[in-house]
Every structure is written in structure tokens, then in C-alpha cells.
Specification:
The chain is an alpha/beta fold. The chain has 18 helices and 19 strands. The strands form two sheets. Strands 8-1-10-19-18-17-16-15-14-11-12-13 form a twelve-stranded mixed β-sheet, with helices on both faces. It has a seven-stranded parallel β-sheet with strand order 4-3-2-5-6-7-9, with helices on one face. Strand 17 and strand 18 form a beta hairpin. Helix 2 packs across helix 4, helix 12 packs parallel to helix 13 and helix 16 packs antiparallel against helix 17. The longest helix has 27 residues.
């Protein structure tokens, strides 16, 4: 996993490299520029014009070094300085003077961005948090409308490096070259959308700062997925119980069941209100258990489902259950201390019956979207989204369980670490995606994957499967059922990569 830093931590890392390891600041700038030049070489034909926009501080200094390196390679590059020459200080001033001495071209006025094939954005760095001026917003708008390939240095100008918030306007980069570590603002929306492809360029062999916020990759998931020996049988891969569905929300029950089967659990029992059972004729691999004799989770249905808890090794509860008449089933599921996924209507039941929150434990994974999290915390969606990383961490610590806070960037925490997942696409922003996640997560728990690792893997696999389906269907036509069909392909791919 890659460590993810706040801007303040990134500045601390730079200072450690300079003062503890003796690497001068202008050398770090030179190395950073090499990464940007490499990105330009990969994306931009050699006989085209390049414009570098240089702002104040170290971000502008990186831009000066990029300009000089391009000039020395014979590239047609020139720069526009967004601040006065007199305001430059320190390492940025050193690289500005080196660029002048090398004969680099600086423009006296902001040019027409449409005249360039590539624009390098070195205006504002990761420390920006204040609103941009109207003049800067207009400049950024012209750059975004230019049609040029846009490469941002460290972070797109206008994005808050800590939160991903847009400070009035921001460069929409095709690629962002960030240095040594990825920054939070590049992975949190809307910053993630503005960043384009993220390229991490090392500037030192040392990694002097460590973070408890991590960005997961393919290789991390491969190490989590349990092996499938040739002589394995259904009993090796877990007995899972789903308590889901109601007459009104039959689809949620079917989706979560199909996803659990695709996720590889050995034996799946699905407890549903009796009226839902006929719908399961289309999922013959699941053992459908009719509970009660009604359409809802009344006392009788809950009592029948409770009888199935003892025989299960992992439990998923909540998808499409609707309003439950009591807390008996959820209470007994939590009291069993079995690995459990709590989603959807079960989360709403937790929020309404807050004494149940004290029964959450380290084997439980709760999977709220921001509105459900706001209800659990008695806060607002705006507060949840203002800092989803710390919301996930603090709620996991408060509740004593694993929290998987869903979003374009999903934040998963055990109360100490936070893992960020960025697989997936807008096609997941449709009904049923959460049900698929619950089924997939349940399958991994049934296969004895530890809850925190299972939550990380399930989030990754759901998104990666959606990306696979997206290649065929596009995000407008993609529906949750398409993702289920791709899950087995993605799991197979992860095992052989």
C-alpha cells in the first residue's frame, strides 16, 4: 500500500530530507522536475510547444526547473511567471536564475493557452486552502478550455491538498505528477477528479515520514484473497448466512445472494420473509429459508432466522429488509460475535436503537454511505463529507468495529489505520451496488479473511469489477447485476497477476 500524506506531513518529509539526510532543497526540486519532464516526454510529441505556468513558492520553483530541463533537451518551451520576480525566494529563486542563465524564455504577458500542445501547471502547491481570486479563476478557466494536454506539478492548482476541496476553480489535469508520497487531496473528491492520472515520482531513496492513511493497490488484494486448493470442497470455503429482503425489496436480497456466491463462499443460506422465497427460484445455488409467514421481518420471521445463526460462520444483515418490528434478530446476530456485515436497513435500525451500538465488536463491518453515517453519528452529511478519512477512523474507534464508509473514494478503518479505495466508476452510483458489496464482503468473511482485510478487499473488488464491466457497457448502462457477473473474472485475475 502507498502512504498518503497531508500537506503538513509532506512539508515535514521535505525538511527531514534536507536537514537530516543532507539533500539540498534545490536538488529535490531538480529531481521533482525530472519526473514532470518524463511525463511530458510520455505524453507530448517532441516538435510541439509547451507552456509552463509558474507561481510563488516551491511549486513555481519546480516549474522553473522543468523549463530549464526542457530547454536543455531542445524542447520548444517557455514560461509565464504569475508573480513578480522580486517576490521569489530560496530554492525557487535559485532555479529561476538558473533558467535565465540557460537562456530560457519568459513571457511578459499571459499568452493564448490554445497555442500550446502542453501546459504545465506549477501555479499553486498542496498548501493552498484559501479561495482563489477572480483573476486566477479566469486564468484557470482559459487553461481548462484550451484543449492542451495539462500536466500538474504535485497537485492541480486550486485544489486543497488536505481535503480535495476546490478553492473556486482548479486545473483539470490529464496527469498529476506528485512527489515521494501521494497527497490526500489527490484521492478525495473533487480533487481526485481534477487530478487525472496520478504519477508518483520518487525524489529520494529515504522515506522519512510514515502515515496511517494508505492507498491500496492490486498487489495488496492478491495477498488477501484466500487460496483455492485443487482438492478443496464447499465446506472449506465457509457457511454464510444472509438475513435480507422483504416483499418490497426483493431485488436487494437477490443481488446480495448472487454476489456472495460469486465471491466464493462455500454454502450460502438466505433467510427471507416467506413471501420472498419464490423469487429465489432464479438463484438455485443458494439455500433459501422462508421465515415466518408474512412479507416483512415480524417477530415470527426474526425468530426463524435466529435459529440459523448457530450453524453459520459469517453473517450479512440488512439489505432490503425494510423496517423491522423489533431488534431481536440484529441483537442476536451481534451477540453471536460471528464475523458480520451490517448494511442498509440494519444500519438504520442501529441508528434508531442506539443501545445496539454498544454491541458492535471487532468482527463487525458496518458499511454506511454518508447519509447512513450521519444518522449513526447524529451529525450531517456535510460534516461526514468534510473529512471522510477522519470520520471513518473516529467512528471505528468509537464503535469498536470496522467502518467501511462508502463513496467515490471509500474510506475503511479499524480505528487506527485508514485505507483508501479508488477503484470503481460512476456506474456504481445506482441502486443495488451496496447490496453487491455486502454479499461480496460476506463471502470473504465466510472464507476466514479477517474483517479489516475483507472490507479492504471487498471494496477493491467491487470497484475493479465495475471497471471491468464499464469497459463493455459504459457507466450509464452499467447496473449492479453486471458487476456481479464481472466479480468472478476480477477475483481470478487478482489471483494470477
Amino acid at each position: 500500500m502507498k502512504e498518503v500524506l497531508k500537506p503538513s506531513q509532506a512539508r515535514e518529509a521535505d525538511q527531514e530530507l534536507i536537514h537530516r539526510y543532507g539533500i539540498p532543497g534545490e536538488v529535490l526540486m531538480e529531481r521533482a522536475a525530472q519526473g514532470v519532464v518524463r511525463a511530458i516526454d510520455d505524453r507530448v510529441p517532441k516538435d510541439t510547444r509547451i507552456l509552463i505556468l509558474c507561481g510563488p513558492g516551491n511549486n513555481g520553483g519546480d516549474g522553473f526547473a522543468v523549463l530549464r530541463q526542457l530547454h536543455e533537451r531542445g524542447r520548444d518551451a517557455e514560461a509565464w511567471l504569475a508573480v513578480s520576480e522580486e517576490s521569489l525566494r530560496g530554492d525557487a529563486l535559485i532555479h529561476y536564475r538558473r533558467a535565465l542563465d540557460a537562456g530560457c524564455r519568459f513571457l511578459s504577458a499571459f499568452p493564448d493557452p490554445g497555442e500550446y500542445a502542453c501546459i504545465v501547471d506549477a501555479l499553486f502547491g498542496t498548501g493552498l486552502s484559501r479561495p482563489l481570486s477572480s483573476a486566477h479563476c479566469e486564468l484557470i478557466s482559459r487553461v481548462n478550455a484550451s484543449g492542451a494536454c495539462r500536466i500538474s506539478v504535485d497537485i492541480p492548482s486550486g485544489i486543497d491538498g488536505a481535503t480535495g476541496r476546490c478553492c473556486g476553480a482548479a486545473i483539470r489535469a490529464d496527469e498529476t505528477v506528485t512527489f515521494q508520497y501521494v497527497k490526500r487531496g489527490l484521492l478525495l473528491c473533487p480533487g481526485r477528479e481534477y487530478a487525472g492520472n496520478i504519477r508518483i515520482h520518487p525524489i529520494a531513496d529515504q522515506y522519512p515520514v510514515h502515515s496511517d492513511v494508505l492507498w491500496q493497490e492490486h498487489s495488496d488484494i492478491r495477498s488477501i484473497l484466500p487460496p483455492r486448493p485443487l482438492d478443496s470442497h464447499k465446506g472449506n470455503h465457509g457457511r454464510a448466512l444472509l438475513c435480507v429482503g422483504s416483499a418490497r425489496y426483493t431485488g436487494a436480497a437477490l443481488l446480495s445472494a448472487r454476489a456472495a456466491l460469486r465471491g466464493g463462499c462455500g454454502l450460502l443460506s438466505v433467510a427471507v420473509p416467506a413471501a420472498v422465497k419464490p423469487a429465489f427460484a432464479v438463484v438455485p445455488e443458494a439455500m433459501c429459508i422462508p421465515c415466518g409467514d408474512n412479507e416483512i421481518w415480524d417477530e415470527s420471521a426474526q425468530a426463524d432466522a435466529c435459529e440459523r445463526i448457530a450453524a453459520s460462520q459469517a453473517i450479512g444483515i440488512g439489505c432490503g429488509m425494510g423496517e423491522m418490528c423489533s431488534d431481536r434478530l440484529l441483537r442476536e446476530v451481534l451477540a453471536s460475535h460471528r464475523p458480520t456485515v451490517v448494511d442498509a436497513d440494519a444500519l438504520n435500525h442501529l441508528a434508531a436503537h442506539r443501545d445496539l451500538l454498544t454491541m458492535l465488536h471487532s468482527n463487525v463491518v458496518v458499511t454506511p454511505h454518508p447519509a447512513e453515517m450521519a444518522r449513526l453519528l447524529r451529525s450531517s452529511v456535510e460534516e461526514v463529507l468534510a473529512d471522510p478519512i477522519e470520520t471513518a477512523r473516529e467512528s471505528a474507534r468509537q464503535f469498536g468495529c470496522i467502518v467501511l464508509l462508502k463513496g467515490a473514494t471509500t474510506c475503511i478503518s479499524n480505528g487506527r489505520e485508514v485505507v483508501l479505495n479508488t477503484t470503481g466508476n460512476p456506474g456504481l452510483a445506482k441502486g443495488g451496488s451496496g447490496d453487491v458489496l455486502t454479499g461480496l464482503l460476506l463471502a470473504l468473511l465466510a472464507q476466514r479473511v479477517l474483517p479489516f482485510q475483507a472490507a479492504c478487499a471487498a471494496a477493491f473488488l467491487l470497484g475493479a469489477s465495475a471497471d471491468l464491466a464499464y469497459e463493455i457497457l459504459g457507466n450509464r448502462m452499467l447496473v449492479a447485476g453486471d458487476v456481479i457477473d464481472a466479480i468472478s473474472q476480477e477475483i481470478r485475475a487478482e489471483r494470477v497477476r
